[in-house]
Amino acid sequence: MGSNGQVLGITKIADAGDPKLRWNVVIVSEGYRSAEMAQFKTDADQFANTLLTTAPYDRLRKGINVYRVDVTSTDSGARDPTGCGGTGAKPKTFFDASFCTSGIRRLLVGNSGRVIKVVKNLLPQFHLSVLQVNSPVHGGSGGEVPTFSKAPNAVEIALHEMGHSAFGLADEYEYFAGCVADHGHDNHSGSEPSQPNVTTNKNRATVKWRSLIQAATAVPTTQNGNCAGCDPQPAPVPAGTVGLFEGADYFHCRVYRPEFNCRMRNLNQPFCGVCQQVIEKKLAPFLPPS
Ligand SMILES: [Zn+2]
Hints:
Number of domains: 2
Bound molecules: zinc ion
Number of helices: 5
Structural class: alpha/beta
Order of helices and strands: EEHHEHEEEHEEH
Mean pLDDT: 96
Number of strands: 8
CATH architecture of the largest domain: 3-Layer(aba) Sandwich
CATH topology of the largest domain: Collagenase (Catalytic Domain)
Low-confidence stretches: none
């Protein structure tokens, strides 16, 4: 460990107070050479600013510390195997981040165990670490350490992946390989998913997000007329309406999401009301007394 770079240290970049009391997010650099650390500072500041101005984090910012951990790498970028159509780049980097995990080019993964070890050593009270990879290629991943590149929309990828890693949210999109390419994703099994933002229960009196559904909203709110593919219909209700929209959790039918759209369904969309409530409930204990 360490032969491909060096851990320089930790800096608090958004200060909400004592880390023993707050929710602590740590952004770690991967694939930045010593001469590129000023760029990482800029990238980390951009991440912190986007996080803290995105609902519901904007309402919770008094409970959130953001830290930056500066780690240099010998070389710039990330591995990009030719087997996935990549450039074949094989830079020597501290956390060995690589595209093409499981044969999918955009699946960008580093050595999560090594990231956790470095962060724990510098800030034992950390709650979540994210890995910023210095590559312009589109990519990212979830798991224990949400990871994202510097492609346009990369911070959006980080926000989506944090929804999985820190808050146990499900994907709200209704396909696996693709709306047309899918096989075996027409109908959900019917068993209730454990995640708070997808359901197979279409009973308005008992569905898990019933408290957010207005009496005037139809339930189900949309139904997919052709379970062989994704539902093409536009939203029949204004944005922000919570109901039951068919198609979620990688299946075209028999499973529902809370709003027509959500950051857990599409990048550059706000989190739906249910996802926002889940995040708020988890972070409320970290807020100072008002
Ligand atoms: Zn959602």
